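Postdoc handover notes: sequence design on the structure in folder B. Input tokens:
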């Protein structure tokens, strides 16, 4: 309440839910592999980690995504929302232009990542809320869940070179 998330203006939307839907729209109808390629995820590590998942950039080539596996307690729903969450974060960067979206230079971004120079806590709260909304929407498609389940089954405990698929 009272806080206006500046990212919404960049996309001409009025809520983070609308923003999540806008991003999701660009992926609907694509297979999981096509989605990975569309978001330039060139590497996907499905292995035991100490956290649910994450992404990092590999220079301007694309992203490396990691997904924690195995994680029995929450089952496959866990993978779908974790995957969706990390997928959302790829939208923060425009690798085609070799610069992050959202008005920061690449240099500034790296500095921020390394030094943890933060925008406001509210900015990040909105960002993470939007990621969670996107993840929920993404995971609501049974097709997404099923394809991810198959993908994890096929590539569990390995690092996948997505471009070779
Ligand atoms: Zn996040």
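Designed sequence:
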């Amino acid at each position: 309440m009272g806080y206006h998330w500046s990212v919404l203006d960049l996309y001409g939307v009025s809520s983070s839910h609308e923003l999540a839907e806008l991003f999701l729209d660009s992926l609907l109808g694509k297979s999981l592999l096509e989605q990975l390629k569309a978001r330039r995820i060139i590497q996907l590590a499905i292995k035991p980690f100490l956290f649910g998942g994450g992404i990092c950039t590999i220079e301007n080539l694309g992203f490396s995504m990691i997904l924690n596996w195995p994680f029995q307690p929450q089952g496959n729903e866990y993978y779908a929302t974790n995957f969706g969450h990390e997928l959302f974060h790829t939208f923060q960067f425009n690798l085609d232009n070799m610069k992050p979206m959202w008005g920061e230079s690449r240099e500034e971004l790296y500095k921020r990542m390394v030094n943890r120079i933060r925008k406001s806590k509210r900015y990040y709260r909105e960002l993470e809320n939007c990621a969670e909304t996107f993840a929920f929407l993404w995971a609501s498609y049974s097709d997404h869940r099923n394809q991810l389940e198959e993908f994890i089954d096929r590539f569990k405990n390995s690092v996948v070179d997505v471009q070779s698929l």
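Context for whoever picks this up: The mean pLDDT is 84. Don't rerun without checking with the PI first.
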